[in-house]
Specification:
There is one protein chain. The chain is an alpha/beta fold. It has one domain (about 5-225): Rossmann fold. It contains 9 helices and 7 strands; from the N terminus they run αααβαβαββαβααβαβ. Helix 1 (about 5-15) crosses helix 4. The protein is globular, with a radius of gyration of 17 Å.
């Protein structure tokens, strides 16, 4: 398993690093099977997943719903991977890419913004379309969690009432087009931290108690889905 520095993990996931960075070792065995493959990453305003892929020698289509500003270019230049990355503006529910184009497609904390289950399903179906047969959709997304999570989001985040959080029990049906799906849920307390320092501390408590909790109580879903 490839080891990454704390700085690299921060650049990959940016926020609540202790928990969201768990996606990297979860996904790494899949991309290791396809050296120097072709991948597309969506919702890449910060460019973190594109950076991770390029550091693994993938050619990457880095896209976001809005036009890019300077952040992804800066972070990719910092790690000297710009030669492996192309940039475009894409709607994840209807992309400009052809059928069967990519070995991997990825996103992190993106489809919650779509607001409805129907639009989320459109996005998952679209990503299935652009994958090669045998390719993988790798994603990390926010789960609904408990009533405590839902209350805190409504109270303390600007987007809490607009975002549609995935429900653990609905995901087998939403991902049914894929031949196989591996999924895991993680995190409980860390999302309540108001600073990265607080989230890092709470994630240490999560390590002890989350394995004892029902999967549906957790707030992050990691998945690897094969076409």
């Amino acid at each position: 398993m490839k080891n990454y520095s704390n700085e690299e993990l921060r650049d990959f996931v940016q926020w609540d690093v202790e928990n969201w960075a768990k996606a990297i070792p979860f996904w790494q065995p899949y991309i290791d099977q396809v050296p120097k493959g072709l991948a597309a990453a969506f919702g890449e305003r910060e460019g973190g997943l594109s950076l991770w892929l390029a550091m693994n020698e993938f050619s990457v289509e880095c896209s976001d719903y809005t036009q890019f500003e300077t952040t992804p270019l800066e972070i990719h230049s910092k790690h000297d991977v710009t030669g492996l990355i192309s940039y475009s503006q894409q709607d994840i529910t209807s992309t400009s890419f052809p059928d069967n184009a990519f070995d991997f497609v990825l996103f992190k904390s993106v489809i919650g913004t779509l607001g409805t289950k129907e639009r989320q399903q459109l996005a998952l179906d679209e990503l299935h379309r652009i994958l090669k047969p045998g390719g993988y959709l790798l994603f990390a997304e926010n789960l609904e969690g408990t009533s405590m999570h839902r209350f805190a989001r409504r109270k303390f985040t600007n987007w809490g009432n607009r975002w549609r959080y995935l429900k653990w029990k609905e995901m087998d049906q939403m991902l049914s087009k894929f031949v196989s799906t591996e999924k895991r849920s993680i995190g409980f307390l860390a999302t309540f931290g108001r600073s990265e320092k607080q989230r890092a501390f709470l994630s240490k408590i999560d390590r002890v108690f989350v394995p004892l909790m029902p999967k549906s109580w957790r707030y992050i879903m990691l998945s690897a889905c094969r076409k």
